[in-house]
Amino acid sequence: MIKKSVVPVIAAAWMLGFIAPAFSQTAQELILKGDEFYSQFDDQKALEQYLEALKVDPNHYGALWKTARAYVDLGDLLDPGLKDLKDKQMSFYQNGEDYARKAVKANARDTWGFFQLSAAMGKKLLLMSKKEQVQMSKEVRGYIDKAIALDPRNDLAHHALGRWHRRMAEIGGVKRLMGGLLYGGIPKGSFEESEKAMRTAIDLKPEYGNHRLELGRTLLALDKHKEAAAEFQACLDAPVITSKCPLYKKEAQRELEQVKKKLK
Predict the structure, then answer these.
(1) Among candidates 127, 117, 189, which has minimal Cα distance to 157?
(2) Residue-wise DSSP of 102-171
(3) Residue 159 half-sphere exposure, CB side, CA atoms within 13 Å?
(4) Domains of the chain, with CATH numbers?
(5) pLDDT by residue (tens digit) across 166-200?
(6) CA–CA separation, 240 vs 244, rounded Å?
(7) How far is the C-alpha of 116 from the C-alpha of 140, rounded, in Å?
(8) What is the pLDDT of residues 98-107, one digit of tens each?
């Protein structure tokens, strides 16, 4: 026979078995917590919340593409002095690509999965061999175009297009010829198209300093030094709206100092 004193304990435990699920967090609640950390520039804690959301709902599109974003951002913010920096960055970017691919699979009708896939692959591309860069650049461009087609107001996708054009345009005639012979053709880009895409990104989100920084770099390639200096200064004056904005400002300051020497 169960003692009377034990009965309330069993009853309480039985009740908690039904009550506990009511207090468990939904995937959307966890994502909102992650978004709050993201707005506070704490990418690591944001990532942790998004991963928890995926434990609840492994195919949640929002959690998937935001997890991809967090991995790429954390890879970008690794200490440059770290041992084996490139290997660690590659690990973060590969994780970003993996989650972005899952996001695209979960929802192929939204811009952010495709953009994050292009972003993660674009970061990986810079750490790879020339042959791999040429081969992957075509695929990256396809995802950028898809992101823009799904939402022409995606400023980050236009930004990515601008960087893609500049990267391809930087491959000069001899290098392009040799690359074509070695790797089977290098996609064409132009500094003019890079400028156009960057200006579109700025029109869509003028407060984002990285748009200004990258436009400045494209303008330098076009020998528009005064205009470039103005964009670097605009980056310095821009508000801090992401965890990486302080990094962009440091880069803009270095670029501005260099271009000022040329303008003397």
Answers:
(1) 117
(2) HHHHH-TTSHHHHHHHHHHHHHHHTTS-HHHHHHHHHHHHHHHHHHHHH-TT-HHHHHHHHHHHHHHHTS
(3) 21
(4) 26-110 (1.25.40.10)
(5) 998 987 543 444 444 344 567 789 999 999 999 99
(6) 8
(7) 10
(8) 999 999 999 9
